[in-house]
UniProtKB/TrEMBL annotation:
Keyword field: Hydrolase, Magnesium, Metal-binding, Nucleus
Superkingdom, natural source: Eukaryota
GO BP term (any one): DNA protection
Protein name as catalogued: Oxidized purine nucleoside triphosphate hydrolase
Species assigned in the record: Coemansia guatemalensis
Classification via Pfam families: NUDIX
Record-level Gene Ontology MF annotations: 8-oxo-7,8-dihydroguanosine triphosphate pyrophosphatase activity; dATP diphosphatase activity; metal ion binding
Catalytic activity field: N(6)-methyl-dATP + H2O = N(6)-methyl-dAMP + diphosphate + H(+); 2-oxo-ATP + H2O = 2-oxo-AMP + diphosphate + H(+); N(6)-methyl-ATP + H2O = N(6)-methyl-AMP + diphosphate + H(+); O(6)-methyl-dGTP + H2O = O(6)-methyl-dGMP + diphosphate + H(+)
Role according to the record: Oxidized purine nucleoside triphosphate hydrolase which is a prominent sanitizer of the oxidized nucleotide pool. Catalyzes the hydrolysis of 2-oxo-dATP (2-hydroxy-dATP) into 2-oxo-dAMP. Also has a significant hydrolase activity toward 2-oxo-ATP, 8-oxo-dGTP and 8-oxo-dATP. Through the hydrolysis of oxidized purine nucleoside triphosphates, prevents their incorporation into DNA and the subsequent transversions A:T to C:G and G:C to T:A. Also catalyzes the hydrolysis of methylated purine nucleoside triphosphate preventing their integration into DNA.
One cellular component term from this protein's GO annotations in UniProt: cytoplasm
Cofactor(s) for this UniProt protein: Mg(2+)
Span of domain Nudix hydrolase: 7-136
Major place of residence: nucleus
Amino acid sequence: MTTTKPPPRLYTVIFPIEGSGSGQRVLLGLKKRGMGKGLWNGFGGKLEPGETLDDCAHRELQEECGLEAKDLCYVGVLFMICSHHDDLTIFVYTARDLVGSVVESDEMAPQWFTTDKLPYDGCHREARLWWPTMLNGSLFVARFVFTQDDCIQHNIEHVDRARLTQLLSQPGP
Ligand SMILES: Nc1nc2c([nH]c(=O)n2[C@H]2C[C@H](O)[C@@H](COP(=O)(O)OP(=O)(O)OP(=O)(O)O)O2)c(=O)[nH]1
């Protein structure tokens, strides 16, 4: 009997950024519970019913680290094909022009890092493959194939704004 995999679960992940060049800093959160517990990541979560992806990104940023972004920019998408659980599609945002104070939430303990000292050893295994592309300011589509233990295949494609926008309405790999 063949079973059909459910459609991918949709998430956002948001990276607050300050400064530029060698002074560029990124706010990461150490996840305190759930999936990715104990790992550094951007802030984010599941798309709620009736919400746009931009709404989701603003809400998750505020809920998880207390910040509001006047400049929230959709910069990429991650298609994660997983053998051991549902597939994930994660829409990636950078957040600049930040308002408010950074606060620790139930979910995340935030900390600023300079971009030359990112804690890749304590991040999701694929982070080092695509964070440099995001931090360079490129727009991208990344595809990863995971087994339980490994990322067995990946590719990162640089795209233009039109292609990225198209993927918002047709989020398929
Ligand atoms: N880089 C990377 N990010 C991931 C992976 N898996 C995964 O969920 N994420 C991101 C997407 C989301 O931003 C975040 C997980 O969201 P979450 O489970 O905390 O969702 P949520 O905030 O809605 O959860 P909750 O309030 O219901 O606990 O981590 C992964 O394998 N790699």
